[in-house]
Design a protein that fits this description.
This protein is mainly beta and 122 residues long. It is built from 2 helices and 6 strands; from the N terminus they run E-E-E-H-E-H-E-E. Strands 1, 2, 3, 4, 5 and 6 form a 6-stranded antiparallel beta sheet that branches. This is Peptidyl-prolyl cis-trans isomerase.
């Protein structure tokens, strides 16, 4: 399957207070569970402005990492995905980089990620 960079639609409505998970494409491979290492492509967008702040697509290659080392929204939002799936996560600040003023440039922001799960390692 040839992957194409996702377009993230500008959000409408108010920012959620809980993690929102939307499957954009259901995968057909191994299902990710907490504690796995995953290989993903992703695009990250600021909910308030619709501006992209990061994307593995811009670097031309996916990234691999253990789920336990990521922001809580990813730790909670990726398990249950299957390889070859695409999922959108809308992550409020308390599940991302914390409240405004906590030191990270994305602190206090609600974030949208569109994630393509390419591989799961156990």
């Amino acid at each position: 399957m040839k992957l194409e960079r996702p377009e993230v639609d500008f959000p409408v409505g108010s920012e959620p207070t809980a993690l929102e998970i939307t499957d954009l494409r259901i995968g057909d491979g191994v299902q990710a569970v907490a504690g796995d290492e995953v290989k993903v492509h992703y695009v990250g967008v600021d909910f308030a402005t619709g501006e992209e702040f990061d994307a593995s697509w811009n670097r031309g290659q996916p990234i691999e990492f253990p789920l336990r080392g990521l922001i809580q929204g990813w730790q909670d939002g990726i398990p249950g995905m299957r390889e070859n799936g695409r999922r959108q996560l809308v992550i409020p600040p308390h599940l991302a980089y914390g409240p405004a003023g906590s030191g990270h440039r994305l602190a206090g922001k609600t974030l949208i990620f569109v994630i393509d799960l390419l591989a799961v390692k156990r």
